C-alpha cells in the first residue's frame, strides 16, 4: 500500500496529528498536498534520481514534503534544523539538491546559505516568504491535487556520522519501483510490530532523523495515524500516549531517563494501557534504565541496532533482553562477523569490529575513502558501521565501543572532529582533543581537553571563550559543554593522539 491508496480508502481518517496544537491532517489532505508538490517538482524539471533537500522543524507539512519526494522517485535529504550556515551549505551542495525547502522559523539560517548553494534552482519557504525564497503554499496551490503520471518509489539520502569531521551522505540504490512496492523496512515493521489501520504511532523525536522519518512513512502505508510531537517533553509524551491511545512509539534512551525522573505521582497519573510497542534505538540503553522502564510499562519495549546505512538490523524484544541484559539482540538483516584489526573472524565472547554480511549495499556519497573503510579488509563484501562489540554463544550482540570515537548524546550522533578542527586553529590552543564523557541524562556529554598556548591562560575565562568560539560556527549540541586544561596531551612520537588513553580517564 501507499499514501494514495490509503487516502482513497479512508480519506477522512487522521493521517497526522500535531500533539502540541491538536491539529489534524487527514489522509486526503496529506495525499493532496504531497501530490501538488510532486506536480510542481515535475514542472520544475525534476525527474527520478534528482534531489530535494529540506530543513524544517517538526512542521505540519514535513511528512507531505517527504511523501512528495518519495512518490516522485527522488532522492530526498531531511536536514537537521539545528545546523549553522556552514554545515547547512555543505550538505545542500554535497547532496546535489535542486530544490530546497525551509520555514520562516528557520529563515535566518536558510537565507544565509542562498548565495552559497548555486546548484539549487528553486527555494520554497513555508509560512511566509523570505529573500530568495518563494511561498511554498502559493506555488503548490497552482497545481492539481492528483498523482503525477510517472509515480515511482524514491528514497531518502540522509547524512550519517564520520571521523573526518564532515557528515557523510548515505546513498542507497534508487529502485524506481512502482509506487507501493514494499521495502525491507515495511516487511520488518509488519513482522515485528504488526501495525494496521487502527494503530497510532507516536513520534517524539525530530523528524529529520532516519528512524522517525522512515517509520512515520512506513506506518502511513498501513493506514496508521501518526502523532508528531513538535518537541519532546517527558510529561507531554505521557499525556499524548493517553490522549491519543497510542499503540506504537519510538524513543531514545535519554527520553526514558527524563520520563523516569518525573515525580512518581506524575508518572502514575497517565493511562498508558494502550501502548503495545515501545521501540528504542540510536544509543545504548543503560541496563538499569531499561529494567525500570519494563517494570513501569511492561514487556512492551523493543530494541534494535541499525544505522542510516541500512546494512543490518539487530533486534531484541523484552523477554529476550531480560534473559540477556544489555544485549541489542540478534540479527534479522545482515549476518554478524566479529573481526580483529586484520579482518580475522573472532569466536563468541571476543570483542572486535562488527561487520555484517548479506545486507543491502550502500556508499558514502562523494567519499570513496569512507566507503572503502566501511568494507572488511579481506574483501569478503562485509560492511561495518565502525562499532565494536561481541556476540555470546547464543548469537546475541553486545556493543562495547565506537571505533570512530563518535559521541552519542541524547541519541544524537556528534562528530568530535568538527569541534577539534575549530579549536585546533584557535590562537590560544596548542593542542586539543574532543571526547565524550559520561553523562547521567544524555548518555555522553561533549568535552574538550585543551593544551593552552600560554599555560597561564588556563581557566574559566578561556573556557568560556573557546566554547563561544565553537558556538559561532557549529550547532550548539556539537560544541563542548566543558573544557579541561592539560600541560600536554598524550601523543605518539609520530604525532598520533592517544585519544583512548584520554577517554579512559573519564570512563573508569
Topology (SSEs and partners):
Elements (H helix, E strand, L loop, with lengths): L2 H7 L4 E5 L5 E3 H17 L7 E5 L6 H10 L3 E5 L5 H11 L3 E5 L3 H6 L9 E5 L7 E2 H6 L13 E2 L2 E2 L7 E4 L12 H10 L6 E4 L6 H12 L3 E4 L5 H11 L3 E4 L1 H8 L3 H5 L8 E4 L6 H11 L3 E5 L7 E5 H6 L6 E4 L1 E5 L12 E6 L5 E2 L3 H6 L13 E5 L5 E6 L4 E3 L2 E3 L1 H9 L4 E11 L3 E10 L7 H12 L10 E4 L13 H9 L1
Parallel strand pairs: 1-12, 3-4, 3-5, 4-8, 5-6, 6-7, 11-12, 11-13, 13-14, 14-15, 26-27
Antiparallel strand pairs: 1-2, 9-10, 10-20, 15-16, 16-17, 18-19, 19-21, 21-22, 23-24, 25-26
InterPro entries: AMP-bd_C, AMP-bd_C_sf, AMP-binding_CS, AMP-dep_synth/lig_dom, ANL_N_sf
Protein name: Long-chain acyl-CoA synthetase
GO molecular function, one term: CoA-ligase activity
Tell me about this structure.
The structure is a single chain. The protein is of the alpha/beta class and 508 residues long. Among the domains are: 27-169, Rossmann fold; 333-404, Luciferase, domain 3 (Roll); 407-507, GMP Synthetase, Chain A, domain 3. 31% of the residues lie in helices and 24% in strands. The protein is built from 17 helices and 27 strands. The chain has a nine-stranded mixed sheet, with helices on both faces. α1 packs antiparallel against α2 (27-43), α2 crosses α3 and α10 packs across α12.
Amino acid at each position: 500500500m501507499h499514501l494514495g491508496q490509503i487516502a482513497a480508502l479512508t480519506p477522512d481518517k487522521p493521517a497526522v496529528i500535531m500533539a502540541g496544537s491538536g491539529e489534524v491532517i487527514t489522509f486526503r489532505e496529506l495525499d493532496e498536498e504531497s501530490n501538488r508538490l510532486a506536480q510542481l517538482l515535475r514542472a520544475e524539471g525534476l525527474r527520478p534520481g534528482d534531489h530535494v533537500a529540506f530543513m524544517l522543524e517538526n512542521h505540519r507539512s514535513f511528512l507531505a514534503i517527504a511523501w512528495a519526494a518519495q512518490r516522485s522517485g527522488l532522492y530526498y535529504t531531511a536536514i537537521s534544523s539545528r545546523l549553522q550556515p556552514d554545515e547547512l551549505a555543505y550538505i545542500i551542495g554535497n547532496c546535489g539538491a535542486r530544490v530546497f525547502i525551509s520555514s520562516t522559523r528557520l529563515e535566518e539560517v536558510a537565507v544565509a546559505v542562498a548565495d552559497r548553494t548555486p546548484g539549487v534552482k528553486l527555494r520554497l519557504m513555508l509560512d511566509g516568504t523570505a529573500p530568495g525564497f518563494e511561498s511554498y503554499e502559493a506555488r503548490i496551490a497552482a497545481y492539481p491535487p492528483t498523482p503525477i503520471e510517472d509515480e515511482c518509489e524514491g528514497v531518502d539520502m540522509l547524512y550519517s556520522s564520520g571521523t573526518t569531521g564532515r557528515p557523510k551522505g548515505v546513498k542507497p540504490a534508487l529502485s524506481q519501483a512502482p509506487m507501493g512496492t514494499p521495502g525491507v523496512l515495511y516487511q520488518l515493521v509488519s513482522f515485528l510490530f504488526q501495525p494496521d489501520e487502527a494503530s497510532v504511532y507516536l513520534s517524539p523525536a525530530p523528524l529529520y532523523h532516519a528512524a522517525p522519518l522512515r517509520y512515520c512513512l512506513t506506518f502511513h502505508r498501513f493506514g496508521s495515524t501518526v502523532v508528531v510531537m513538535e518537541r519532546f517533553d517527558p510529561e507531554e509524551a505521557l499525556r499524548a500516549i493517553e490522549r491519543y491511545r497510542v499503540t506504537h512509539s519510538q524513543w531514545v534512551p535519554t527520553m526514558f531517563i527524563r520520563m523516569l525522573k518525573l515525580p512518581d505521582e506524575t508518572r502514575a497519573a497517565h493511562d498508558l494501557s494502550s501502548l503495545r510497542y515501545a521501540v528504542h534505538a540510536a544509543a545504548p540503553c543503560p541496563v538499569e534504565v531499561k529494567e525500570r522502564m519494563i517494570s513501569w510499562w511492561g514487556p512492551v519495549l523493543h530494541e534494535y541496532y541499525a544505522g542510516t546505512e541500512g546494512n543490518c538490523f539487530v533486534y531484541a524484544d523484552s523477554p529476550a533482553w531480560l534473559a540477556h541484559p544489555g544485549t541489542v539482540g540478534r540479527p534479522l538483516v545482515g549476518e554478524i562477523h566479529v573481526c580483529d584489526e586484520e579482518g580475522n573472524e573472532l569466536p563468541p565472547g571476543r570483542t572486535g569490529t562488527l561487520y555484517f554480511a548479506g545486507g543491502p549495499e550502500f556508499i558514502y556519497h562523494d567519499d570513496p575513502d569512507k566507503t572503502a573503510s566501511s568494507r572488511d579488509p579481506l574483501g569478503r563484501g562485509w560492511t561495518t558501521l565502525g562499532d565494536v562489540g561481541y556476540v555470546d554463544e547464543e548469537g546475541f550482540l553486545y556493543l562495547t565501543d565506537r571505533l570512530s570515537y563518535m559521541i552519542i548524546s541524547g541519541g544524537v550522533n556528534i562528530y568530535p572532529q568538527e569541534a577539534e578542527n575549530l579549536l585546533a586553529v584557535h590562537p590560544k590552543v596548542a593542542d586539543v582533543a574532543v571526547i565524550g564523557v559520561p553523562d547521567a541524562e544524555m548518555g555522553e556529554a561533549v568535552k574538550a581537553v585543551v593544551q593552552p598556548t600560554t599555560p597561564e591562560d588556563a581557566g574559566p575565562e578561556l573556557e568560556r571563550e573557546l566554547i563561544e568560539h565553537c558556538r559561532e560556527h557549529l550547532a550548539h549540541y556539537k560544541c563542548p559543554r566543558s573544557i579541561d586544561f592539560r600541560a600536554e596531551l598524550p601523543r605518539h612520537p609520530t604525532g598520533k593522539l592517544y585519544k583512548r588513553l584520554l577517554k579512559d580517564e573519564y570512563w573508569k
